[in-house]
Amino acid sequence: MATIFIFIFFFFLVPSYGFDSLDPLGNITITWDYFSDNGNSVDVRVSLNNLQLFRHVEEPGWNLGWAWKGDEVIWAMLGAEAKEQGNCTRFRGQQKPHCCQKEPVIIDLMPGTPYNMQTANCCKGGVLTSLKQDHSKGGATFQMNYIKASVSDSGGSFSMPENFTLGVPGYSCGTPFQVPPTKFTKDGHRWQQVLETWNVTCIYSQFLASPTPTCCVSLSAFYNSTIVPCPTCSCNCQGLPGATNCVECSHHMCPISIHWHVKQSYKEHWRVKITITNMNFVKNYSQWNLVAVHPNFRSVTQVFSFNFQTLSVYANFSDIGMFWGLPYYNDRLLTHGENGHVQTEVLLHKDRGEFRFNEGWSFPRKISFNGDECVMPSPDAYPTLPNTAHISTTTLPTIFLSLLLLSICSTSLE
Ligand SMILES: *[C@@H]1O[C@H](CO)[C@@H](O)[C@H](O)[C@H]1NC(C)=O
Ligand SMILES: *[C@@H]1O[C@H](CO)[C@@H](O)[C@H](O)[C@H]1NC(C)=O
Ligand SMILES: *[C@@H]1O[C@H](CO)[C@@H](O)[C@H](O)[C@H]1NC(C)=O
Ligand SMILES: *[C@@H]1O[C@H](CO)[C@@H](O)[C@H](O)[C@H]1NC(C)=O
Ligand SMILES: *[C@@H]1O[C@H](CO)[C@@H](O)[C@H](O)[C@H]1NC(C)=O
Ligand SMILES: *[C@@H]1O[C@H](CO)[C@@H](O)[C@H](O)[C@H]1NC(C)=O
Ligand SMILES: *[C@@H]1O[C@H](CO)[C@@H](O)[C@H](O)[C@H]1NC(C)=O
């Protein structure tokens, strides 16, 4: 009996403007507010806002760069700092400017920076959380005073810099475009308008971030003793140039592997166990997140040990579920040497007319970790139901041991 998998889903057919069908509009927006013009200098407030549903910016964080069109010089900055001062020798004698580079790179300050160097919403060490995980920490703001270019092309108007970069692998930023000026309030009563506001949209592409995938998926089910491993060479092949020696040497060479185990069947419900393993010896993943696509996510009854939310990316289509860790419990996925795994069990309702164990229905359609899509096994290898479909509810405690053995090989140190 041939098993037929239909992997064409609604969201694959929708044309996407970004690069990610699970968050098609996701972007990081830079907003540049000109809030006062002092003749030869200008005060600007720059904000970064992470408008992505699940992808976050983790340590070491953003490094915002741009190119001035003239010989502008940053005189002072609050809430962030330029990485390098550059050549300021033309300002002899006097107090030196903050940054004289043609292409400055701005870095965030650390939490706990002295109060007189801060602005509201600053100093998070470059980390930006996602909309779903903690929207309140998804932004960063700094202020600066800069000296206008000595030869200003258009009298009076501002000369917006260009060629913005975020300094985070995978992001590319568009051309600045003028938007209706931002309003702001200091006291909650009076609203002031800035002079001009410009936005820059930066979009993530997994291909730009990394030439190879970074995670893979393995599968198993209580009704079949076969463990379908991560596809060989999912992320790289052992011994190939570029195969990192900081990851546990496995047949898949992925820093992250995810195991989806269909664990148990009850009268009205079924249970899945999801384990995320960090194969990396040198990296902790803080604020990690996992996004999976499964039609039964519409009827999740209970999720143990993880946070869970469905993402309504396409109006009523809630097959996309996001998991992330509980603060101070498992929101950090530690290195391979330090118990590097986290796991959850999910209880789902068996919806009439839809739920089934055959045809691979109980397995995920797609999984991403920290916003990067993981390599799935080929559908024709999925564990199948025994032909005499007697479903036992025993679990297989040996599965994880054998999985471990499967994925481990001698570590090459070269
Ligand atoms: C940026 O993301 C937000 C939130 O998803 C979206 O509303 C907005 O349209 C996006 N902007 C662009 C220019 O794509
Ligand atoms: C921005 O980048 C383009 C293409 O690399 C370059 O031609 C242009 O001169 C840059 N702009 C500035 C102000 O450096
Ligand atoms: C700095 O700029 C001045 C001209 O403004 C130049 O004479 C000097 O060589 C530069 N110094 C360095 C280290 O580049
Ligand atoms: C500009 O960016 C801000 C977020 O920083 C956003 O709220 C606003 O809607 C954007 N404006 C336009 C016209 O895209
Ligand atoms: C990972 O986190 C643990 C516990 O917080 C810490 O002891 C360890 O040094 C970290 N390792 C790396 C490589 O950052
Ligand atoms: C969303 O789904 C519910 C229940 O499945 C249905 O009643 C409702 O009409 C749907 N809404 C839209 C906008 O499709
Ligand atoms: C378990 O699934 C595999 C496919 O991955 C299949 O070849 C095998 O026959 C199944 N075992 C049983 C006992 O049904």
Task: Give a structural overview.
This protein has 414 residues and is mainly beta. It folds into two domains: 191 residues, Immunoglobulin-like (Sandwich), CATH 2.60.40.290; 170 residues, Immunoglobulin-like. 5% of the residues lie in helices and 35% in strands. The protein is built from four helices and 26 strands. The strands form six sheets. Strands 1, 2, 4, 7, 9, 10 and 13 form a seven-stranded antiparallel beta sheet that branches. Strands 15-14-16-17-24-20 form a six-stranded mixed beta sheet, covered by helices on one side. A five-stranded antiparallel beta sheet has the order 21-22-19-25-26, with no helix packed on it. The longest helix is centred in the C-terminal third of the chain and has 9 residues. The chain is elongated, with a radius of gyration of 25 Å. The N terminus and C terminus are likely disordered. One 2-acetamido-2-deoxy-beta-D-glucopyranose binds next to strand 1 and strand 2. Its main location: membrane.
